[in-house]
Amino acid sequence: MTIDPLVFFDLVIALFVLAIALAVMAVSYSQMLKKFNTYQEEADELMSQVHKKGADLLEDARTKAGKIVEDANKKALEIIGESNILNRDSKKTLDEALETLLKHQTSYFEKVSQDFLEAYKRELDSLKQKNIEIVKKVSNDIEEDTINEVKDFDDVLQKETFAAQKIVEEKIEKEYSSAQKNVEDYKNEMLRKAEEEIYKILETVAKLTLGKSIPLAQHEQLIIEALEKAKKDGIAK
Amino acid sequence: MDNTLILNDILGYIKTVDQLDNFLAEIENVLAGLFKIKNKSIDQILDKTAGKSTAGTIKRLAEQNKIIPSDYPSLEKILTGLKKDLKKIKILKISLAIDPSQEQIDHIFDWVLENLGKGIILDIDKDESILGGAIISFGGTYKDLSLRRTIEEIFQTKKGEIMNFAKS
Question: Is the pLDDT of residue B142 over 60?
C-alpha cells in the first residue's frame, strides 16, 4: 500500500503545528505555577501576622481583667468590715428597744386581761341569774301547759273511749246477731243433711229388708204382675 | 215347602235366647256334618252331630219334606231356611232379681205366649239390685217395673209421712 505524497505532506504540516501549540502551552503553564507560589507565600505571611496580633491583644486583656478583680476584692473587704461594725451597734440598740417594748406590753396586757376577766365574770353572773329566771318561768309555763294538755287529753280520751265503746258494743251486737244467724243456718243445714242421710238410710234399709224378705213364689208373682202392667202400658204394641 | 208346623213345634220348646243359641249351634253342626261325612244316611249324620231332641226335630222335618236319606242338598236347603226363620224370632228382654228355675221360666214363657202371642222368646238376666219385679224391654220399649223403682217412688212421694213415722 502506498500513501499519496500530498496527503503525507499535509500530515507532516499538521504534526508540526501541533508540536508548536504544545510547546506554547507548556511554557504558559510553567509561568502560571510560579505566580501561584508567590501568592501563596504572601498569604502565609499575612496569616502569621494576624495570629500574632490576636495573641498580644488577648494577653493584654487578661492582665487588665486581673487587676480589676483584685481592686474589686479589696474594696469589698473594706465594705464588709465597715458593715460589721454598723451591724453590732444596730443590734444593741434594737435589743434595748425590744426589751423596753416587751416590758411595757406585758404590763399593759396584764391589766387588760384583769379588766376583761372581771367584766366577763360580771356578765356571766348576770347571764346566769337571767337564765335561772327564764328556766323557772319556762318550767312553770310547761307545768301549766302540761296540766292543761293532760286535762284536755283526758277529756277527749274519755269522750273517744265512750264513743269507741259504743261502736264496739254495736259491732259486737251486730256480729253476734250475724253469728247467731249463721249458727242457726248451719244448724238447719246440718239437720236437713242429717234428715236426708237418715232418709237415704231408711230407703236403703227398706230395700234390703224387702228384697231379702220376699219368698221365691212371691218373686214369681211380682214378675207376672210386672208383665201384666207392661202389657197394660202397651208394651206389646 | 211349608215348615210352619215344624217351626211352631220348635218354638214350643225353645223358650230362651240361650236355648235358641244352642239349637242354632246344633244346626250348624249338622250342616258341617253334611259337608264332611260321606256315604252315610241323613239319620246317621243327625245322630252323630246333634242331640236327641234336635235330631228328632230335623228328622221330622226331613220326613215332612220327603227327603231321602242320601239327599244332603235338600236337607241343607231346609236347614238354612230354618236358620233364617229362627233368626227372625222376637226377643223379650227381662231383668229379674233372682235366678229363675226352669219352672218359673216356663210360667213366664206361658204367660208371654198367652198374652203377647207366638214367636217370642225370653232373654233373661239377673240383677239383684232391682229387689223384685222385673225390668222389661220389648220392641224398643223399656219398662222399669222393679220393686226398687216402686220403693224409690214411695220414698220420693211420701217423704213427710215416712219421716213422721220414723220419728214417732
Answer: yes
- Report percent pLDDT > 90 for chain B: 44
User: In chain B, which residues touch A (CB < 8 A)?
Assistant: 94, 96-98, 100-101, 104, 107-108, 111-112, 115-117, 128, 131-134, 136, 138-139, 141, 143, 145-148, 151-152, 155, 159, 162-163, 166
Closest-CA residue in chain A for B141?
Answer: A235
Domain boundaries in chain B? 4-87, 90-159
Other CB atoms within 10 Å distance of the CB of residue B93: 15
Please name which of B48, B42, B121 lies closest in space to residue B89, comparing C-alpha atoms.
Answer: B121
Q: Which tens digits make up the pLDDT trace of B28-64?
A: 999 998 888 777 888 888 888 888 888 888 888 888 8
Residue whose entry in the numeric block shows the C-alpha cell 220392641? B139
- Write down the pLDDT at residue B147: 92
Q: How far apart are CA B134 and CA B130, in angstroms?
A: 8
Q: How far apart are CA B90 and CA B76, in angstroms?
A: 24
Q: Which residues of chain A have pLDDT under 50?
A: none
Strand, coil or helix: A236 = coil
Task: Report the alpha-carbon distance of residue A192 to residue B30 in Å, rounded.
Answer: 68
ipTM of predicted complex: 0.83
Q: What is the pLDDT of residue B5?
A: 62
Strand pairing class (B90-96; B120-126)? parallel
- Between CA B57 and CA B79 the distance in angstroms is 11
Residue B145, min C-alpha distance to chain A (Å): 6
Element (H, E) at B65: none
Chain A residues within an 8 Å CB radius of B128:
211
A contacts of B101 (beta carbons < 8 Å): 216
The structure's pTM equals 0.52
**Which residue does chain B place closest to A222, by CA atoms?**
B133
Beta strands B141-146 and B133-138 are antiparallel
Higher pLDDT, A216 or B136: B136
